From TrEMBL, chain A:
<keyword id="KW-0472">Membrane</keyword>
<dbReference type="GO" id="GO:0005886">
    <property type="term" value="C:plasma membrane"/>
</dbReference>
<feature type="transmembrane region" description="Helical">
    <location>
        <begin position="69"/>
        <end position="92"/>
    </location>
</feature>
<keyword id="KW-1133">Transmembrane helix</keyword>
<feature type="transmembrane region" description="Helical">
    <location>
        <begin position="28"/>
        <end position="49"/>
    </location>
</feature>
<protein>
    <submittedName>
        <fullName>Na(+)/H(+) antiporter subunit C</fullName>
    </submittedName>
</protein>
<dbReference type="Pfam" id="PF00420">
    <property type="entry name" value="Oxidored_q2"/>
</dbReference>
<keyword id="KW-0812">Transmembrane</keyword>
<feature type="transmembrane region" description="Helical">
    <location>
        <begin position="6"/>
        <end position="21"/>
    </location>
</feature>
Automatic annotation (TrEMBL), chain B:
<feature type="transmembrane region" description="Helical">
    <location>
        <begin position="109"/>
        <end position="133"/>
    </location>
</feature>
<comment type="similarity">
    <text>Belongs to the CPA3 antiporters (TC 2.A.63) subunit B family.</text>
</comment>
<dbReference type="Pfam" id="PF04039">
    <property type="entry name" value="MnhB"/>
</dbReference>
<keyword id="KW-1003">Cell membrane</keyword>
<feature type="transmembrane region" description="Helical">
    <location>
        <begin position="69"/>
        <end position="89"/>
    </location>
</feature>
<feature type="transmembrane region" description="Helical">
    <location>
        <begin position="12"/>
        <end position="32"/>
    </location>
</feature>
<dbReference type="InterPro" id="IPR007182">
    <property type="entry name" value="MnhB"/>
</dbReference>
<keyword id="KW-0472">Membrane</keyword>
<protein>
    <submittedName>
        <fullName>Na(+)/H(+) antiporter subunit B</fullName>
    </submittedName>
</protein>
Length: 113, 140, 812
């Protein structure tokens, strides 16, 4: 299963990277969303898959799966939600102010240096 | 939004109440079964989002006249107060205490300061989700 | 490293910190009592502190010292340790004493209606506190911290009139040069602490012999001296001081003549016991000092601005003190001699330090009065002011004659002692002085001649000669009484110390000298300063200075062309400007090379770095030895979910409409939450499910208004190919990491601790939740803080625009 997961994670990262390198701001945001999915699965896979039962004490005799990656991912999910929504609003406001979502046109001016 | 969403609106009213109740259940159960502040808070805000879908922003704002920024602040305050409260008992930051009590109606219950901390998380999550959605919605 | 107990705040700590506390209230006082000059409220502090420090004179004079310790970062050996011996006390008295006079003077100098007094006094107090901290702290790191604070407050004070371009230039220049030195000094301190295994100066002094043999010794010596030389404006780092004269005159008198620029001298004196064994120490300090003396006095003569003359004269006097300290270092090599003649150099250094503070302070204040009452400091416009400002004239005469080394003022005494020391340098039998020693008295003499000339220029060009009222902005008249009191006090001190030098000798100078040269116990020497030594070589030197100096002053018009020998573009200032401009151009060029302004470029850097660094690491660590056994079994629905995710991830690349991409992203999210269910993570599954729902709603809400996805026809084939290559690289690397981490477990997981203790310690059964709210609760705490900030950011992004929009409407 870990090998299958490795391939899935690889594909998720690949298409996330491709999306983030494109010019449209929406595609970049979707890319970051994919990237966080990939990262979550990566953390989970690193901890080992299905090596025990659900980490609830008393529900079964154990051994339990590693609870630490799960705690990390839970934090990461919520943070990535915050980041994504901030990105979304930045994109939305950028479009309202400047009328474009093309990253090439959003480049900083020379005089701003 | 069209106005003839009666079925949606009726269902949303009932469903959101149920969801919020469920979120409270899942929040309190967090220490023993899957759940906790994050999921609870997200579920509760999901319920409000459902209401938003069924009605419009103003109606929902009338139904629940809450300033969600204050909810965020209150949540952060509760959490940080719980975290630093341990200092007053000469314990390191973040030390929790718990005890088992026999309460009327509930029976054998564990009371835990971690619940207070989680309550902060719950409120912050509701607060930020709704702040985000409300501000975006208002700007249109 | 030694660990000290955390102790109480001693009165010395309070004395150091009190200016900082008072500074907090200055803006409030300024607002509340606007009609009274803020300076009056500040004035009491240095007076109280001065009296407080005077109380220690007796105790310290007996060879005792005060010390107290306060824990700051004890684990690193950094503690707020204060230590007051003779040297620290001398400086503390100077800082508070001159500080009180300067504040009194500033009350009349700065107009309370036109100037932003609160910022001025806040900066001044900041300086006073940090300077006190500098001279009283025993810990090198604390000393460094206060050192940089003085640089910073000096920067703020020079730039006080920040609307003037010269002020900004001067402030920046002083900051760049002194902070450059400060940083190198920090490096030296760290090296020193490596060698001695302590940051305490007193403990370092105890291990002088061992330190000198350490290979890092020379490096640390050079770095620390760079700091001292930049701060004390030694050649060739002196160029910042003349530009610092853009500061208000009280500041110039205080920081840039009496106290801050002497921090370098303090440091050299303080660390003399540690470094003086080295011949390099002697050579560098003595020669830098004497060069600075000659160059500073030579340059002072050609200046036309009164304050510029004083600035260069300060530079040259600092050089003189520095060279004396260098010569005094030789005393350590003659411990067996009955009466150590090189000791006298240190005595002269300390004595001149005090004298310089008195006469230069009074001269600066007099120059400030001239500026204030006539509107100019240009000596070409000034002249004949003697009749209008008799008191200022008297003060200037006293100050300038003392500076020139004329009897009966205190400058004469220390100048004589200086000549004595320089002549004795030639008699040294160490450091190759037999060949080069003779240069020292010659250069000292040449420098003194120029000192005489510019002292005369200050007095005679300003106050005698033809009165030129048409060139002055104001009608000259004598300054108000309050403005005259501080320079009059200083000028009287010049006379008093001139006639009764032994007032200082046993009270202040002896303990200070004992602190610089601790090897010689206090009982061994008695300092006695006298006017008449008989017809010695020093007396002839002084007579020569007066004769030649007068001659040069009279024939000034005939020889002033020598200043054109060195072309302007070779001057140090031009070199500094060129260097700065070159560095700016260079850094802009380098930045432009890789900072293109396109987010894509930066992402490409990140991803390429990711691929290369991780690829190399994996290869070097031989992490490709995959272990394909011991994997979890694969079930059918897991395969189905995997296929769905993989296909969706690829399909999303070709999605034409934004709705499709959002829905596909949501689908992937739901599939991931199914994975969480299968992989025994119910909490994650729940959270992911709800958050995906809300995210999709959010996406739809935002992109309801956004345009269609940019037409991807603009993207050329090469562009897409590049992106594809990079992204395939990233994907492959990540997949390899996933495989490798599965096959190579480098260490045991720490999770067992959580599993075992979740119920006993935290009373919970859901281990994930227990970790979140209890074991790693601080993470969660910060996480919700971050979320709160994100929500505030979003709120601000949208609402601030509305506010501006309404503003626009109002304007229309």
């Amino acid at each position: 299963m870990e090998i299958v997961m490795a391939v899935v994670i690889g594909i998720l990262f690949m298409s996330a990277t491709y999306l983030m390198l494109s010019k449209s701001i929406l595609r970049i945001i979707i890319g970051t969303g994919l990237l966080s999915h990939g990262a979550h699965l990566l953390i989970l896979t690193m901890g080992g898959l299905k090596r025990g039962s659900v980490p609830l004490l008393g529900e079964s005799a154990g051994p339990y799966v590693d609870p630490l990656p799960q705690a990390l991912i839970l934090t990461a999910i919520v943070i990535s939600f915050g980041v994504t929504s901030l990105f979304l609003v930045v994109a939305y406001r950028t479009y309202q102010e400047l009328g474009t979502d093309n990253m090439d046109k959003l480049r900083g001016k020379e005089s701003n240096e | 939004m069209k106005t003839n969403d009666i079925i949606l609106q009726t269902v949303a009213k009932v469903a959101s109440l149920v969801i919020i109740l469920f979120s409270i259940y899942i929040f309190f159960g967090g220490h023993y079964s899957p759940g906790g502040g994050f999921v609870g808070g997200l579920l509760a805000s999901g319920a409000i989002v459902l209401l938003l879908l069924a009605y419009d922003l103003k109606t929902v704002a009338n139904m629940l006249p809450v300033d969600y920024k204050l909810v965020v602040a209150a949540g952060l305050l509760i959490s940080s107060a719980t975290v630093s409260g341990a200092l007053f008992f000469d314990a390191p930051l973040m030390t929790h205490a718990y005890q088992y009590f026999e309460l009327p109606l509930l029976g054998h219950t564990s009371l835990h300061t971690a619940v207070l901390f989680d309550l902060g998380v719950y409120l912050v999550v509701i607060g930020i989700t709704m702040t985000i959605i409300q501000t975006i919605g208002e700007s249109e | 490293m030694e660990f000290r107990e955390v102790e109480y705040m001693s009165s010395l700590h309070w004395a150091i910190l009190s200016p900082f506390f008072i500074a907090c209230f200055i803006p409030l006082v300024y607002k509340q009592f606007h009609r009274v000059h803020t300076g009056w409220f500040v004035l009491f502090l240095p007076i109280v502190l001065f009296i407080y420090f005077t109380g220690f004179i007796h105790e310290v004079g007996d060879g005792r010292h005060l010390s107290a310790s306060l824990g700051w970062i004890p684990s690193l050996g950094i503690n707020f340790d204060v230590y007051a011996d003779g040297l620290s006390l001398l400086f503390s008295l100077l800082i508070t004493g001159i500080g009180a006079l300067v504040i009194l003077y500033s009350i009349y100098y700065l107009d309370k209606d036109k100037e932003k007094l609160h910022t001025f006094y806040v900066y001044l107090l900041l300086f006073m506190g940090s300077m006190l901290g500098l001279v009283l702290s025993d810990n090198l790191i604390v000393l460094y911290m206060f050192w940089e604070f003085t640089s910073l407050s000096s920067f703020l004070l020079i730039g006080y009139w920040y609307h003037r371009e010269r002020s900004r230039y001067g402030a920046q220049k002083s900051l760049l040069i002194t902070v450059l030195g400060g940083l190198s000094m920090l490096g030296g301190f760290v090296l020193l602490s490596f060698m001695g295994d302590t940051y305490s100066i007193r403990e370092l002094m105890g291990q002088t012999g061992e330190l000198a043999t350490d290979p890092l010794f020379t490096a640390s010596l050079l770095l620390i001296l760079l700091g001292a030389f930049t701060k004390s404006a030694q050649f060739p780092f002196h160029i910042w001081l003349p530009d610092a004269m853009e500061a208000p005159t009280p500041v110039s008198a205080y920081l840039h003549s009496a106290t801050m620029v002497k921090a370098g001298i303090y440091l050299v004196a303080r660390l003399s016991p540690v470094f003086a064994e080295s011949s390099l120490w002697f050579w560098l300090i003595a020669s830098a000092g004497i060069l600075t003396l000659v160059w500073g006095s030579y340059s002072a003569v050609k200046q036309t601005d009164l304050k510029a003359i004083l600035a260069y004269s300060t530079i040259s006097q600092l050089g003189m003190i520095m060279s004396l300290l260098g010569a005094g270092a030789a005393a350590l090599h003659y411990e067996s001699m009955d009466k150590n003649i090189y000791m006298a150099a240190t005595v002269a250094a300390v004595f001149h330090l005090i004298n310089h503070a008195t006469f230069k302070g009074s001269l600066f204040m007099a120059a400030g009065i001239v500026d204030h009452e006539t509107g100019t400091r240009d000596i070409r416009k000034l002249g004949g002011l003697m009749n209008f400002m008799p008191i200022t004239f008297t003060i200037t005469i006293i100050g300038a004659f003392s500076m020139a080394g004329l009897p009966p003022f205190n400058g004469f005494l220390s100048k004589e002692m200086f000549f004595t020391s320089m002549v004795r340098v030639t008699e040294m039998e160490i450091f190759n002085m037999e060949t080069w020693g003779v240069l020292f008295p010659v250069l000292a003499w040449v420098g003194s001649i120029f000192t005489f000339v510019y002292s005369m220029i200050i007095v005679l060009k300003t106050f005698t000669g033809k009165f030129k009222p048409e060139k002055l902005e104001k009608k000259p008249h004598e300054a108000p009484l309050g403005m005259l009191i501080p320079p009059v006090i200083l000028a009287s001190l010049v006379i008093i110390f001139g006639f009764f030098p032994n007032l200082l000798a046993s009270t202040v100078i002896e303990p200070a000298v004992a602190a610089i040269q601790p090897g010689l116990s206090q009982k061994q020497f008695q300092i006695h300063i006298s006017h008449w030594h008989g017809f010695t070589i020093e007396l002839y030197m002084t007579l020569g200075v007066i004769l030649l100096g007068s001659l040069l002053y009279i024939t000034w018009d005939k020889w002033k062309c020598v200043y054109h020998i060195i072309p302007g573009r070779l001057s140090l200032n031009r070199m500094y400007d060129a260097l700065l401009a070159g560095m700016e151009r260079g850094s802009i060029g380098v930045t432009k090379l890789f900072m293109t302004g396109y987010i894509r470029t930066y992402l490409v850097y990140i991803f390429l770095f990711f691929i290369v660094s991780l690829g190399i690491t994996l290869w070097r660590e031989d992490a490709f030895a995959f272990d394909v056994g011991n994997t979890a079994p694969v079930r059918l629905y897991e395969v189905i979910i995997s296929v769905i995710i993989a296909t969706s991830a690829i399909v999303i690349l070709f999605a034409k409409s934004r709705l499709t991409s959002i829905i596909i992203l949501g689908a992937i999210g739901y599939m991931v939450s199914l994975f969480f269910v299968l992989f025994r993570a119910p909490d994650l599954a729940l959270t992911q499910l709800v958050i995906e729902t809300i995210s999709v709603a959010l996406f739809l809400l935002c992109f309801y208004h956004l345009p269609k996805l940019s037409s991807r026809k603009e993207e050329r084939v090469a562009f897409r190919l590049n992106n594809a290559l990079i992204s395939i690289g990233v994907g492959v690397i990540v997949a390899l990491i996933a495989l490798s981490s599965h096959s190579n477990k480098l260490f045991e997981s720490i999770s067992n601790y959580y599993i075992e203790n979740a119920y006993e310690e935290a009373g919970g059964k859901n281990i994930v939740n227990v970790i979140l709210v209890d074991f790693r609760g601080l993470d969660t705490m910060f996480e919700i803080t971050v979320l709160g900030i994100a929500a505030l950011g979003i709120f601000a992004l949208i609402k601030l625009r509305l506010a501006r929009g309404t503003l626009k409407d109002e304007n229309e």
